[in-house]
Amino acid sequence: MNVHTFRKHKQQGRKISMVTCYDHWSARILNRCDVDCLLVGDSLAVVMHGFDSTVQATVEMMAMHVGAVARGAPDKFIIADMPFLSCSRGIDKGLDAVQALMTQGAHAVKIEGDTHQVELIRRIVEAGVPVMGHIGLTPQSIHGLGGHKVQGKGEEEAQRLINGARALQGAGCFAIVIECVPRVVGRCITEAVNVPTIGIGAGPETDGQVLVLHDLLGVNPDFKPKFLRRYADSHDYITEAVNRYHSEVVEERFPSLEESYG
Ligand code: KIV
Questions:
Q1: Burial, 137: exposed, middle or buried (Cβ in 10 Å; 0-12, 13-18, 19+)?
Q2: Quick check: 151 and 157 in contact, CB under 8 A?
Q3: Helices (H), the chain
Q4: Is 5 exposed, middle or buried (0-12, 13-18, 19+ CB in 10 A)?
Q5: CA–centroid distance for 130 within its chain
Q6: What is the DSSP letter of 113?
Q7: Which of 15, 195, 205, 262 is the most exposed place for a label (fewest CB within 10 A)?
Q8: 51 close to 231: Cβ distance less than 8 angstroms
Q9: Is the bond leading into 255 cis (omega within 30 degrees of zero)?
Q10: Ligand 1 pocket, residue 41 CB under 6 Å
Q11: Tens digit of pLDDT for each residue in 108-138?
């Protein structure tokens, strides 16, 4: 997978799959899976560090996770999120953040927002770094948006998102994530741009889909957004395995003689 494959897949109507990856051991597993590309998303602030939003992700935190993923998934195309405010303090600071992520092994960066990010995106692309846009529900702006709400509901708001996607394409983005918009808006944005769109809660007509790995694996049984499909019940699976280990230790059934050095 590379930036050219993304566009080729859109032209050929072949959907693109992306999944988040935050750490080395899951990167090693995902490196052997068929999934097209990995996103070191700033959602790791919530999933891996227990914060209540992505606002707490920092460049240092992101860079550390990118390195762990890159060492575990050498065959995958890795996109790293530019964290909260790293794109809002001027071009030089933005480029410093890009450098921190790319030197850890990312192949591209993802930036939340549209028209207000165009200048920075242009400069990053000129520097030879592929940029993925992210519009719709942009979790770094969660306080400004007033919570996790579906975006682009009215006609005016939908048109604003379409214009934003066109601006991102014009700035040189090779793909655009669309998060939590009505299905028809996901389709209209996808039709309005030549670069592939990757949806999460944006319906089936985007050019690809992205999910948080832990969500699709069912690690948190209480997290049930409408757009999520669970492909495993890891919470129950892990609980069962660890409880079985505990009882075998307590009941002196682990370790056996075969599991002991002579
Ligand atoms: O940080 C993240 O995981 C994301 C995806 C949900 C698109 O940005």
A1: buried
A2: yes
A3: 3-12, 24-31, 44-47, 59-72, 91-102, 118-126, 142-145, 155-171, 183-192, 213-216, 234-250
A4: middle
A5: 15
A6: B
A7: 262
A8: no
A9: yes
A10: yes
A11: 999 999 999 999 999 999 999 999 999 999 9
Residue type, 35: V
Q: How far is the CA of 247 from the centre of ligand 1 (A)?
A: 38
Q: Which amino acid residue places its CA nearest to atom 8 of ligand 1?
A: 41
Q: Cβ(177) to ligand 1 under 6 A?
A: yes
Integer-rounded Cα Rg, in Å, for the chain is: 20
Instruction: Give yes or no for residue 105 CB within 6 A of ligand 1.
Output: no
Q: Read out DSSP for 34-98?
A: --SEEEE-TTHHHHTT--SSGGG--HHHHHHHHHHHHHH-TTSEEEEE--TTTTSS-HHHHHHHH
pLDDT at 218: 98
For the question of whether the overall pTM of this predicted structure is more than 0.90, the answer is yes
Residue 58's alpha-carbon distances to 52, 64, 210, in angstroms, are: 14, 10, 22
Which residues are within 8 A (CB) of 99 and not within 5 positions of it... i.e. 6 or more apart? none
Q: How far is Cα 86 from Cα 73, in angstroms, rounded to an integer?
A: 25
How far does residue 179's CA lie from ligand 1's centre (Å)? 8
In this structure, the strands spanning 16-20 and 77-81 are unpaired
